[in-house]
Amino acid sequence: MQKYTVKNKKSSHGVFYVLLNAKNNETTIESFPYRFAVDMNLGDCVRALGHGDFVRAWTTGDKLFLPLEPVVDWRLRYYVHNNFDYIDGLYFRYALARALAARKIMPSLSTTRNLAMFLQWPIEKSR
């Protein structure tokens, strides 16, 4: 998990370009969709989750953004296992539940079900 602070943001055609600064003074510019970055303020904490240098999820406050969303059911089931290490996986589950609660959706104990609700997929009935 990499933590960044927002130094600057600029909007262009529904996309925000955000200048992020890490604790080691490393800076990066990332593009985020409007719905994720609209409430970001200067100095806010943004976390990048994933394996090594591959960012699979961004989170700030009660918002969550997945740059690469799973496209088939079996990828949904193994999304956390395949894309995050242990600590990032725990934090992803927490951020996912928080993002659902912000949408007034009661999160369940199943990460797969929560991810399906977050992505607004139809949930399969299981026995």
SSE order and pairing:
Layout: E1 2-12, E2 15-22, E3 27-33, H1 34-37, E4 45-51, E5 54-60, E6 63-65, H2 73-77, H3 79-83, H4 86-102, H5 111-118
Helix pairs in contact: 4-5
DSSP strand count: 6
What overall geometry do the principal axes of the alpha carbons give? globular
Largest sheet: 6 strands, antiparallel
Q: Helix content range of the residues, please? A: 25-40%
Spans of at least 5 consecutive residues whose pLDDT stays below 50 are: none
In short:
The protein is α+β, with helices and mostly antiparallel strands and 127 residues long.
Could you characterize what this model shows?
This protein is α+β, with helices and mostly antiparallel strands and 127 residues long. It is built from 5 helices and 6 strands. The chain has a 6-stranded antiparallel beta sheet with strand order 3-2-1-4-5-6. Helix 4 packs across helix 5. The longest helix is centred in the last third of the chain and has 17 residues. The model has no long low-confidence stretch (mean pLDDT 90).
